[in-house]
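> @MW can you paste both from yesterday?
MW: sure, first one:
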Amino acid sequence: METLKIKHTAKSRLAGKKDQAIIGVVASGNLEVLLERVLPDTRCEVDIATTAEGFDDTWKAVVADFVERRSPGGLRISINDGGARPDTVYLRLMQGAALMEAE
């Protein structure tokens, strides 16, 4: 099991008022993402627990792309990964952000 912590400065706070959202399930080839609105407006932290070791650069690239496109300021994101592909990780992050923004 590998754990990673990635920190970013977002352009702005993610829209919406929900305090938290959870998306996905940890199962074969999938992941669970918990988003919590607990940080200052432009900070974003992503904690990752994964069974797939040696993919630090891939994780950093996926998270950086997500931060650039969605600007998830104010969020701490916890990811429990069961071996998901990068496109699935990105999809779950985008779905989680959409849930946080929903009224």
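MW: second:
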Amino acid sequence: MRIFGWIEAITALGLLVVATGARADEEKIPLDDVPRAVIDAVKAKFPDAKIKKAVKEEEDGTTVYELSFTHEDKDYKVEAKADGTIIAVEREIAVSDLPEAVVKGVKAKYPDAKIEKAEEVTEGLNLKVTYEIEIETAEKKELEITLDASGSILKTEEEDDNWMRR
């Protein structure tokens, strides 16, 4: 009976490590530690950017820097490689500015959901645009949904408290 208790404890600990390890490679860093090329690339694209914070992480074996900043009274996040190559730009937008197809895509799957926040995400060499939408379902579940411009749902995640702190 005592061995069974240890097995339960070890299993629970293992699950905890797996659940929290998804972003273990993400690290908040001082702005002074961001490569100059990354800062220069952001300032070139967004001259009035007021950079608030920086995060460094590994994505597919590449070091990526994510800068959070405001520009023209809007919140942005930019992901860039150390050489200054911008990989993705996330821009907070008003829910009322969402394309009609995106709103219809959300409402088709979650008819009684409330859209609480929206971001337009531009990424890749082909400048693919997607939308990240935060919703609260009728069941009070908070979800983050990624949709393409046609309103097709690409990904759905339960929102965690760390999503907005990145």
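> thanks! The longest strand covers residues 50-59.
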